[in-house]
Design brief:
Blueprint (H helix, E strand, L loop, with lengths): L2 H6 L15 H13 L16 H9 L3 H18 L2 E3 L2 H8 L5 E4 L2 H7 L9 E4 L3 H6 L8 E3 L2 H14 L2 E6 L5 E7 L5 H9 L4 E2 L3 E5 L19 E4 L4 E4 L19 E5 L11
Parallel strand pairs: 1-7
Antiparallel strand pairs: 1-5, 2-3, 2-4, 3-6, 5-6, 8-11, 9-10
Helix pairs in contact: 3-4, 5-8
Bound molecules: iron/sulfur cluster (3 copies).
One iron/sulfur cluster binds next to loops.
Length: 278
């Protein structure tokens, strides 16, 4: 069990299956806290993910380890209190979609800034809850607005995005309020880059880890390019794929191209060496 389940699951199997973490009441509390602090009540400003980025890189350039560790700790604490993500599998995402309303398709902020994609080609983010009404009301501010989805449409969208290569990530907007199912990839996603490149944990590992069955793997290598987290490699000596389970985020992307179904997702909590690796 991760620390977020310990704190916020309230008896549910996982914290993101607890309907209370999507409640309008939490969104309101977050807004009131932001207003009290004098900040604009804007979910887009809840982030703390990349705030440590430039000073961290400067400290890295001169190998100032003490400063790096301090910035890293501060950036993580800020992210975990305000805006961080945890990877979920497609199956988990489909269960979450059944819990939430309203749900809408929006433009992806990371891909807009990384790729400069026009809004109409960039509807790869899924938002949920009362924040969606702002996106509907002020489409110029919340770029591209929102397209509300039925449950069936949301499930169809997330399934298509998953098969296209995007990893599903549950994001908080004022922890524990869950406001987004992000569909992310490396290097477009700022959260992935901060986590993978800088080691500042803005995205937590999911509750599963991949395992390759050596008796089924035929050595085709198709899974390797699917991994966004540098957890999967190809071992030419054994002619099979190899998963570094300490690095695996449990997204399930590697299963998609695997014709012999050689890759399984195992419950992290049942593997003692991995049960506390998040
Ligand atoms: S977190 Fe993912 S879906 Fe959300 S804005 Fe960034 S890349 Fe896009
Ligand atoms: S896609 Fe499947 S069969 Fe091919 S290398 Fe990966 S695990 Fe092995
Ligand atoms: S090894 Fe598979 S499940 Fe693990 S992070 Fe890579 S693609 Fe995702």
């Amino acid at each position: 069990m991760c620390v977020w389940c310990e704190r916020y699951s309230e008896g549910a199997e996982r914290w993101y299956f607890n309907p209370a973490n999507y409640a309008r009441r939490l969104y309101k509390i977050r807004r009131e806290e932001a207003e009290a602090a004098g900040a604009e009540a804007n979910p887009q400003r809840a982030g703390g993910m990349t705030a440590g980025g430039r000073p961290f890189q400067e400290a890295m350039a001169v190998r100032d380890v003490a400063t790096m560790e301090r910035i890293k700790k501060e950036a993580e604490e800020r992210a975990w209190a305000t805006h961080f993500g945890q990877v979920v599998t497609l199956e988990e995402t489909l269960k979450i979609v059944d819990l939430i309303y309203p749900i809408g398709q929006m433009t992806c902020n990371c891909r807009r800034s990384m790729r400069g994609l026009p809004d109409e080609e960039n509807f790869t983010c899924i938002g949920m809850g009362p924040g969606m009404y702002k996106w509907e009301r002020w489409p110029d501010t919340y770029r591209g607005g929102v397209e509300f989805l039925t449950t069936a449409q949301a499930k169809d969208l997330v399934t298509r995005l998953h098969h296209r290569g995007y990893v599903q990530v549950m994001y908080t907007f004022g922890t524990p309020y869950l406001g987004g199912i992000c569909n992310c990839d490396y290097p477009d996603c700022g959260g992935f880059r901060t986590t993978v490149d800088l080691g500042i944990k803005c995205v937590w590992k999911g509750h599963y880890v991949a395992q390759v069955d050596p008796n089924k793997c035929n050595g085709c290598g198709l899974c390797v390019s699917r991994c966004q987290f540098k957890a999967l490699s190809f071992n030419p000596s054994y002619n099979m794929a190899y998963v570094d389970q300490m690095q695996c985020f449990g997204c399930g992307q590697c299963q998609i191209p695997c014709k012999p179904n050689a890759i399984s997702l195992l419950d992290r909590s049942k593997i003692p060496a991995l049960a506390t690796v998040w």
